[in-house]
Design goal:
By secondary structure, this protein is mainly β. The protein has 3 domains: about 210 residues, no CATH class; about 60 residues, no CATH class; about 140 residues, no CATH class. The chain contains 4 helices and 26 strands. The strands form 6 sheets. The protein has a 16-stranded mixed sheet that branches. A two-stranded antiparallel ribbon has the order 1-4. A two-stranded antiparallel ribbon has the order 5-6.
């Protein structure tokens, strides 16, 4: 059951930039500039957001669990993280057109005006998405989402069947005013409540490229280039309260495998001496570092915090690519092709990705959108039927204005995200559990060849040992590639000077080739290594448009 959620988000942005172009020589041009910008983190006009700062006791809500703080608390601005005003972004570009008209270099570069060589570098800042603030909507004490942590009575859905505790009816819910006390048992343990890290900074990326463009012959143009990007301080999720595997295994050794700690046991209270009395310093109140920060309600069996994430700017990325493209126009034919050979690495491919809280570098792997090879060619051709028709009349109207268009794409597949369910790492958090990998080469199969649609061999993978995260990289093998042809035919007919009729027929995946989705990468799934879905089959659509 949940209360209504409200968000009153705002932000402020300002930017100033200057740039100049300087011709070093008639065939050498330098562009340079500098941008300064201030992008304020989003804030809530009513202050209904929160952060976690270990050891800091809130003054806005004086008996909140220690560490759970709000705008207005000491050192906590309304934006939670400070607004950075030191964001200077230089950029520079150089363009050179070789002027050699004879000799070997003249042949290589084709003569004056036939070749362009360009290089550029720049720093670019980006704003932090409002969605990060939306993650915090309705978190304690500004909203209530209640699922009983233990078994309850059907007729009394809030009464704990084991201890008999009954915190009472929780809804309808009203946001408590600042200064309210005695409100926290209904929220404890505070869980699944992302906080915005108070040391966050503005994400930015370095972009750099080098390219050569050459007019080969007539209207054909060939381009070769290198493109690179380094992302810094990118936003992602990571747990600020992960369970301790060592503590869990210690409890398991004391109480045995039946009563002791195990997967999913991070938020339980363990009576280690078996006297039936919960004693701080003697018994185990969860296995997380911040399971108990205030300890006000441990006698009632209530921990302060369970698993919660930070939205934090700790992620980074790297992208490197060789790019080749060509362009050709010959009469009624226009042809454009591009090939990219690239690699993209990161430890979070989006701000919703969860990073290993113990070692951020362990999460570094192929990006979820990495494509090693990507070839795309597009073409359109004006059919010359009009040449067979008389200069006017119905026959010409019928034969003129026909064009065919197409896009063909061949790519390698997207990386497969490896994972495992069951919390064998004993972390009780995201970004940690993965299979063990023995290092042997993974074999790949044609999904069409078996009834189970196997794509990769699974005997190289095994379940994690209890308390030890798996050794497999987050992403290191790619899924099925893409082989797709889209085609259309278009007819445009003018009727007088002001009217026209257009007909279009379009076919997507014209050869109805099976474009398989990625196989399941979760070891705990019965479909591990198998393809269970495909992209759209052939789709056709037709349109008739009257223009006036």
């Amino acid at each position: 059951q949940s209360s209504r959620q409200f968000l009153d988000s705002r932000t402020k942005y300002a930017g100033v930039y200057g740039q100049d172009t300087y011709k070093i020589k008639p065939n050498v041009t330098l562009n340079y500039g500098l941008r300064w910008e201030v992008s304020q983190p989003f804030y809530d006009t009513q202050g209904k957001i929160q952060a976690f700062v270990p050891g800091l006791q809130s003054q806005v809500y004086p008996d909140a669990p220690r560490g759970w703080v709000f705008p207005g608390d000491p050192g906590i601005p309304k934006t939670l993280a400070p607004t950075d005003r030191n964001n200077f972004a230089p950029r520079v570009g150089l363009a050179y057109s070789p002027g050699f008209s004879d000799g070997f270099l003249g042949k290589v570069f084709g003569g004056p005006g036939k070749t362009s060589i360009r290089a550029a570098y720049g720093i670019y800042y980006t704003a932090i998405e409002d969605l990060t603030l939306f993650f915090e909507v309705g978190d304690a004490p500004f909203g209530l989402f209640y699922v009983s942590p233990t078994e309850v009575y059907l007729e009394e859905p809030y009464r704990d069947r084991r201890r008999g505790n009954n915190p009472g009816q929780r809804f309808p819910f009203t946001i408590p005013p600042p200064g309210a006390t005695g409100i926290w048992p209904q929220f404890q343990p505070v869980s699944s409540s992302p906080g915005f890290q108070v040391n966050n900074v503005l994400p930015y990326a370095e972009h750099f490229n080098f390219s050569i463009e050459r007019q080969i012959k007539g209207s054909m143009i060939l381009r070769l280039g290198y493109v690179g990007t380094q992302g810094h301080h990118l936003i992602a999720q990571t747990s600020f309260n992960p369970g301790s595997a060592a503590r869990c295994l210690e409890i398991r050794q004391i109480l045995g495998s039946d009563e002791g700690c195990g997967p999913g046991g991070q938020d339980q209270i363990y009576d280690l001496n078996g006297d039936g009395i919960l004693t701080p310093g003697v018994d185990a109140f969860g296995t997380r570092p911040f399971s108990v920060t205030s300890g006000r309600y441990v006698g009632d069996g209530l921990l302060d915090f369970a698993n919660n994430n930070y939205s934090t700017t700790i992620a980074n990325s790297a992208y490197h690519a060789f790019q080749l493209s060509f362009e050709k126009r010959a009469g009624d034919l226009r042809l454009l092709g591009a090939y990219t050979w690239s690699k993209s690495l990161d430890n979070a491919s989006g701000f919703g990705d969860t990073i290993n809280p113990f070692n951020h570098r362990v999460s570094r792997a192929l990006s979820s959108f990495d494509l090693t090879h990507n070839f795309v060619v597009s073409y359109n051709y004006d059919l010359p039927f009009h040449r067979l028709a008389p200069s006017r009349g119905a026959a010409r109207k019928l034969l003129e204005g026909w064009r065919i268009n197409g896009i063909t794409r061949f790519t390698t597949g997207l990386p497969i995200t490896m994972g495992a369910s069951g919390d064998h790492s004993l972390c009780g958090c995201g970004g940690v559990d993965r299979p063990n990998y023995n290092g042997q080469p993974v074999r790949f199969f044609n999904p069409r060849a078996s009834e189970t649609h196997d794509y990769f061999s699974t005997d190289q993978f095994s379940e994690e040992e209890l308390g030890v995260p798996g050794s497999a990289s987050r992403r290191f093998i790619h899924g099925p590639g893409l082989n797709n042809w889209d085609f259309s035919i278009h007819k445009s007919t003018k009727i007088g000077e002001k009217l026209a009729v257009e007909f279009r027929a379009e076919l997507f995946n014209v050869f109805n080739h099976a474009q398989f989705m990625n196989p399941t990468g979760n070891l705990s799934s019965g479909n591990f290594g198998r393809v269970t879905g495909a992209r759209d089959p052939r789709i056709g659509q037709f349109a008739l448009k009257f223009i006036f």
